[in-house]
Amino acid sequence: MTNNDPRQPVLRVTPGPGDINSNGHIFGGWVLSQMDIAAGIVAARRANGAVATVAIERMEFIAPIELRDLISVYAEVERVGRTSMAIRIEVVADRDRGDRQIKVTEGLFTFVALDEQHRPRAVDQPAA
């Protein structure tokens, strides 16, 4: 990967020492939570209201995340149904003080739009 990526990340974060597993890499659960946060932001914007994660259709760990990596989480709407939407997520690590970018994980998360009673509502229906 190059530093010329025209996309803007939804989230940028650096993992801390408490996020390391026994192998010296970042916990997969930590990465998953960052992906869910970023995807939730994109889904809520698209639904113009509250959303909830209902499924992770696919997730793949491609390369480990290291302690000094700066993580960029990219997310975009891939498809929209009546009450749900699929959000594609890609996580890229800036490594070696930004000299290298490495795609570390990707996934496809499904969200459902919620009404005031936390029940599914149409994505394109205005949230009250």
UniProtKB/TrEMBL annotation:
Q: Which residues form the HotDog ACOT-type domain?
A: 5-117
Q: Which family does it belong to?
A: Belongs to the acyl coenzyme A hydrolase family.
E.C. number, please?
3.1.2.-
State the UniProt keywords alphabetically.
Answer: Hydrolase
Entry's Pfam families? 4HBT
One function term, GO molecular function aspect:
long-chain fatty acyl-CoA hydrolase activity
Q: Which GO terms describe its biological process?
A: acyl-CoA metabolic process; fatty acid catabolic process
UniProt-listed PANTHER family? ACYL COENZYME A THIOESTER HYDROLASE (PTHR11049), ACYL-COA THIOESTER HYDROLASE YCIA (PTHR11049:SF5)
Question: What protein name applies here?
Answer: Acyl-CoA thioesterase YciA
Secretion signal span:
none
One Gene Ontology term, aspect cellular component? cytosol
CDD domains to which the protein is assigned, alphabetical: BFIT_BACH (cd03442)
User: Superkingdom of the source?
Assistant: Bacteria
Kindly report, in one word, the top-level EC class recorded for this enzyme: hydrolase
Species source reads Sphingomonas kaistensis
